[in-house]
Amino acid sequence: MPEGHTIHRLAKDYAAAFSGTAPRVTSPQGKFSDAAALLDGGVLHGTDAHGKHLFLGFAGSWIHIHLGLFGKVDFGGTPAPPPTDTVRLRLANSTSYVDLRGPTTCALITDGEKHAIHGRLGPDPLREDADPQAAFRRISRSRTTIAALLMDQKVVAGVGNVYRAEVLFRHGIDPYRAGKDLTSAEWDAIWADLVALMREGVRLNRIDTVRPEHTPEAMGRPPRVDDHGGEVYVYRRANLPCHICGSGIRTADLAARNLFWCPGCQRS
DNA sequence: TCCTTATGTACAA
DNA sequence: TGTACCTAAGGAC
After folding, report:
1. Are A46 and A15 in contact (CB under 8 A)?
2. Model pTM score
3. Model pLDDT for residues A130-171, shown as the tens digit of each residue
4. Cβ neighbours of residue A153 under 8 Å, at least 6 residues apart?
5. What is the per-residue pLDDT for A97?
6. What is the mean pLDDT of residues A238-247?
7. Spatial distance between the Cα atoms of A120 and A52, rounded to a whole number of angstroms
8. Does residue A226 register a pLDDT over 80?
9. Which nucleotide is closest, CA of A207 to its C1'?
10. How many angstroms separate the Cα of A69 from the Cα of each of A66, A132, A173, A204, A244?
11. What is the gyration radius of the CA atoms in chain A, in angstroms?
12. Among chain A residues 232 through 261, which have CB within 7 angstroms of nucleic chain C?
């Protein structure tokens, strides 16, 4: 689940259920018990998200959450069921509960530490304060592939393996092209597309990247939903025919992640 | 019941 | 570049 759109959606959902209330804060699994005891009964004043980092605001401190590859969050109404022994953090008030499992990070941090995290992250297409030119300055100076640069959170924050593969497909760009060979106009178009795709991702809580004219329905094929919840052009479609040109979708290891692209549609 | 895999990151060598 | 970390689902036996 967790690319940037998931985290921004979680920030909204945590705020809707708990902002302005003083939830019970517990750590059934135990790894966050000391901090939970400090926060228990304090008011959650708001939430924030930058890239894949989620922040829950309490007086004088923040809970910093990063889901990593496995982290999951589940919301529910009262009465909350007994927590299972993998729940790292539970918030519960008179109407809702939310459980966090398997995060890479769940830590209590100061304002200053939060500020430092923002400082090391690149612009986030889902944040109003984002400066896409800051990303282009790094990209246009780099010999690294555009596929790797899009996954580098210091360059752009919030893009993960699905949006990376899909946005490069939508712009017909070979994932192995060097960042320095990307034109300013190409970057502007990619950025605008990421903003639109990721906003839609927050709204629908899933990743859909296929244009209306390319859906199976529009192309006279049987309806199909990919097993990650949305509909995509190339992500995890290795060896299947491209929706547009019919070429077999290719896959390769790039920086320990699976890269997917269409050799017919992404030639340069 | 075991093995693989996953939309991620950090750190060691 | 490799490895460690965190969890759960699905598939092979």
Report:
1. yes
2. 0.96
3. 999 999 999 999 999 999 999 999 999 999 999 999 999 999
4. A51, A52, A121, A122
5. 98
6. 93
7. 13
8. no
9. B7
10. 9, 26, 26, 21, 30
11. 20
12. 255-256
A40: closest CA among A26, A21, A59? A26
Of A225 and A254, the structure prediction assigns the larger pLDDT to A254
CATH topology of domain A132-261: Helicase, Ruva Protein; domain 3 (1.10.8)
Q: Is-contact A99 A82, C-beta < 8 A?
A: no
Q: What's the CA gap between A24 and A80, in Å, rounded?
A: 12
Q: Nearest nt (C1') to A4 (CA)?
A: B7
Q: Which CATH number fits domain A4-120: 1.10.10.10, 3.40.50.300, 3.40.50.720, 3.20.190.10?
A: 3.20.190.10
- Which bases of strand C have any atom within 7 Å of the beta carbon of a protein residue? 1-3, 5-8
Q: What is the pLDDT of residue A86?
A: 97
Q: Domain spans of chain A?
A: 4-120, 132-261
For residue A268, give both structure tokens: 């340069």
β-strand pairing of A61-66 with A105-109: antiparallel
- Please name which of A35, A15, A36 lies closest in space to residue A25, comparing C-alpha atoms: A36
Compute the distance between CA of residue A89 and CA of residue A104 in angstroms, rounded to an integer: 13
Pick the more confident residue, A224 or A219.
Answer: A219
Chain B: positions less than 7 Å from a protein CB are: 6-10
Q: Report the pLDDT value the prediction gives residue A219, as an integer from 0 to 100.
A: 80
**A69 CA: nearest nucleotide by C1':** B8
Write down the pLDDT at residue A228.
58
